[in-house]
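pasting C2 DOCK-type domain-containing protein for the record, 223 residues
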Amino acid sequence: MLQKWGHTQIAVGTRMASYHDEVKISLPALLTPQHHLVFTFFHVDLQMKLEAPKPVIIGYSVLPLSTHIQYASSTQLFFSVLVTSYLLFVTCQLLQMLLSDVSLPILRELVPHYLQESGKERMDYLEDGKTVFRLRLRLCSSLFPINERIRDFFVEYDRHTLHTSPPWGSELLEAINSLKNVESTALLQFLQPILNMLLHLIGDGGETLQVAAFRAMVNILTR
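structre below
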């Protein structure tokens, strides 16, 4: 189940503490510069026997989610998700960030306006600012495709429907034909928007695109 927050445990008494839990967090579809993840580190004093151990906050780490988003840029990828009926923008850099291993420093405390440049001057770090906190991010989304072929198909479909691509549709045709090389597990995650787009092309895409879209749909449905 997707959560907005979660706890994880670490191995006590080891030189390099390791996290054992996977947390799936629900994120908004449209990311702004204010969207970020905050990691809070607690220490539990196990020596206290007279009362229940109380967690003590020892630091924080902050990961901005929109660091690499660039609106109104020529390098943007333009996605149209039919199910949600609105347009989403995301760059390759953002997808790469959400599919990578990240190293972050640990703050002693969260100062006011810690996301802004003015707040960074007042930040006090543990371990001299070394990036001692490491985590692995994996994007699981039905909005932002990870697979390059699916992403290309979405991009070329949008260019075609918005009439920003060449009228003969060669790039879209190539993207449609490449869907047969996409693994079934990757297709399943975006099955509904892909089928919607193919059906739209079959109904109104020109003879060449109609045939290619029909063959692609048959290939997907007969796997």
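The helical segments are 92-97, 117-120, 148-161, 170-177, 184-189, 191-203, 207-221.
The longest strand covers residues 55-64.
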